[in-house]
Design goal:
about 675 residues, eleven-stranded mixed β-sheet, 17 helices, about 20% strand
């Protein structure tokens, strides 16, 4: 998909409002600079009020109102929320949760993704929609369903799981060997004996637990592909996406599930009722943006950008003045080529009555409308400069959904979270204004200087060979605890850890120590530019160098003075092994050390907390984004003279940026 203009708009639900209101909504959207809306992803009962009775006239009229104001449309397939007349046909349409309880009607996405009848009705509604809108010039793209991901444990899924296992393992003998079912006398003699990993079964076989998660991820990909194939048949000129849920969502393999899409989109919520926090963590959103960009190595859409407090039963903290604009430009700074706010107007009925949009329930423009309209006017001015511009990085963080799934089965330590571990590492680079790609273990590494591999618990020979080749050619590889523990079947390797990468790391793990809070210790660095002591938390790998040099030692308990961090020269490159986990200062210091080794410099030499700096490149034109997440003004030094894209002013020396404000700078010579 080659995008020629920046898209800016909102998620709109005309079916929630009187038709007499639609022209006013379209007018107000156009006045705010909107040029796109998403429609119909929860409108199945309006599009098909009775079995086989399709009504598109109302949606045609809504689209006409929008296109008359120059606004184009992304249509959602409405399969995330089926009408009651369908769900009463059979109880098996409802998914069964991990506790073995079958869902009942009342929310959304409560369907079993394997159910043949649901597939049949999905095929019908998507075919009717695609056929009807294939030649409508206002429609530019499609969103498949909405926020895939709830796992089902019903008998239909169990049968499909058996088929999936047969395809993967071919024979029961092979499966029994890979899973090690001889333990506890669980050797299977017929495929039908294999259960699904319900929580009522307590701890499942690790191989079973991992494979079921893989299977469910593949199941959603297949269900998505069913819809994609229909739309591609009828609407080959339209792009296809699905709204993912950022880095934090860990129920699906997003690399696999985005492979069939034309463009990645995701839903960015900074503050919701379930956390009720006053302050937001901008690094968390930055990581999600970089992860979504990394799924297809291309720019992305934000299909739901928060515009009001997000709540269901409770009312969440609303965005403060300036935050909507700040969050929008943070999305753009990390590679968004479209911003679609959720939602246009806050609904007066239903579960999301307290999920506020741009307009309140009364529909009268207020502070949030004014702020989004300001962004709309700015993007009309600079959008063509931004759209399609690329982010360039020298550092990648490698994550693995197999490893995510395996840690869901066995967390290893109650305080350890794979996602949090990656967030801690990412935050070090974020704080130093060093852009990062978040990649999979299958991605090419040739464009990077540093690849950080946090806790690669499930480690394959293919990944090992790729990292070995990268280090041999001059790259820096960084490993952390729990690397190389398991093979693809979630079986522990019969090697000294870090398993397959022990050779390139030049180190062996002598002892693994899982630490409770009252056993946290210290780690002492002895590098020329890093002579300091930090907390050592959660985990400690006591290391034995084979060819590596020790650069840090433990400073507490019975393993005092034992190696904690090493660096190993490997042909033209280097391999670092960090044997423990730590606090923010620990990761900040590690980041600086790694970047000094690689001769990678920050985008700007700014040490002010709460300042975020990123850049995009339009050819050889540099676009420098500076965002102030603080409550006070901040000074930021500049390394050359720039022109402010928004004001046109020439700036040199330094800038002073107000609280919650944004500047977009470009080289004056361009």
């Amino acid at each position: 998909m080659k995008q020629t203009k920046f898209y800016f708009g909102a998620d709109y639900y005309p079916e929630h409002w009187l038709e007499e209101r639609w022209p006013m909504d379209a007018k107000m959207m156009a006045e705010a600079g909107f040029n796109v809306v998403r429609l119909a992803e929860f409108a199945w009962s309006k599009l098909e009020p009775e079995d086989g009775i399709y009504e598109f006239d109302w949606l045609d009229r809504a689209i006409e109102c929008l296109v008359n104001r120059g606004i184009q449309v992304v249509l959602g397939t409405p399969t995330a929320s089926a009408p009651p007349w369908l769900m009463v046909k059979q109880k098996e349409l409802f998914l069964v949760d991990q506790n073995g309880a079958r869902q009942t009607y009342g929310l959304r996405r409560e369907y079993c993704p394997s159910n043949p009848l649901y597939h049949q009705y999905t095929n019908l509604i998507v075919t009717k929609m695609a056929d009807h809108y294939q030649n409508n010039p206002a429609v530019i793209g499609w969103q498949i369903d909405n926020e895939f991901g709830d796992r089902c444990y019903c008998e239909i899924c169990r049968g499909k799981f058996h088929d999936w296992l047969k395809n993967r393992y071919q024979t029961l003998e092979n499966l029994n060997e890979k899973w090690g079912t001889i333990f506890w006398s669980h050797v299977y003699t017929d495929w039908s004996q294999i259960p699904v990993p319900l929580t009522t079964g307590r701890s499942p076989n690790p191989g079973l637990g991992l494979d079921y998660r893989r299977f469910m991820s593949d199941t959603y990909r297949d269900y998505q592909k069913l819809q994609i194939d229909i739309i591609r048949k009828f609407c080959p000129r339209h792009f296809i996406t699905h709204n993912l849920m950022g880095f934090g969502y860990n129920q699906l393999d997003y690399y696999d599930n985005s492979a069939d899409l034309d463009v990645v989109s995701w839903d960015n919520y900074m503050r919701m009722q379930w956390e009720m926090q006053a302050e937001v963590n901008p690094a968390r959103a930055a990581l999600s943006h970089d992860t979504m960009r990394g799924l297809k190595k291309q720019n992305f859409w934000v299909m739901e950008q928060q515009s009001g407090g997000g709540g269901w039963e409770c009312v969440a903290v609303p965005p403060k003045p300036g935050e909507l604009r700040l969050w929008t430009y943070q999305s753009i700074a990390h590679g968004a080529d479209a911003i679609v706010y959720f939602r246009w107007r806050t609904c007066r009925t239903g579960t999301e009555q307290f999920w506020y949009g741009i307009l309140d329930h009364h529909g009268i423009p207020g502070r949030r409308y004014t702020e989004t309209a300001q962004v709309g006017m700015e993007l009309q001015k600079i959008g063509e400069v931004i759209v399609g511009s690329q982010i360039r990085t020298s550092i990648a963080i490698m994550q693995s959904y197999d490893t995510r799934f395996a840690f869901q089965v066995q967390p290893n330590n109650p305080r350890f979270g794979y996602e949090k571990h990656i967030q801690d590492i990412y935050r070090g680079f974020y704080n130093h204004h060093i852009p990062v790609d978040v990649i999979s273990e299958k991605d090419a590494l040739t464009s990077y200087m540093v690849v950080v591999v946090p806790a690669m618990y499930i480690l394959t020979k293919e990944t090992t060979e790729r990292l070995e080749k990268f280090a041999a050619s001059g790259g820096i590889v960084v490993f952390t605890p729990r690397t190389g523990v398991k093979d693809e079947s979630n079986t522990i390797v019969d090697l000294k850890l870090p398993g397959l990468v022990a050779k390139i790391a030049g180190v062996e793990v002598e002892e693994c120590i899982s630490m409770p809070p009252d056993m946290d210790g210290k780690v002492r660095f002895g590098l020329p530019n890093l002579e300091a002591e930090f907390p050592a938390t959660v985990w400690a790998d006591v290391l034995k160098p084979t060819t590596a040099k020790v650069v840090a030692w433990y400073a507490t308990d019975y393993y005092t003075d034992q190696p904690a961090v090493t660096i190993n020269p490997f042909q033209a490159g280097s391999v670092i092994y960090i044997g423990t986990m730590g606090d923010a200062d620990f990761y900040d210091s590690i980041t600086k050390w790694i970047c000094d080794l690689a001769k990678i410099k920050p985008l700007l030499p700014c040490s002010s907390p709460g300042i975020e700096i990123n850049e995009r490149w339009q050819g050889d034109q540099r676009l420098l984004f500076i965002l102030n997440h603080n409550k006070a003004p901040q000074k930021v030094p500049l390394d050359e003279s720039f022109r402010d894209l928004l004001s046109g002013k020439i700036i040199k020396g330094h800038i002073e940026i107000d609280p919650l404000q944004v500047m977009i700078l470009t080289d004056i010579k361009k």
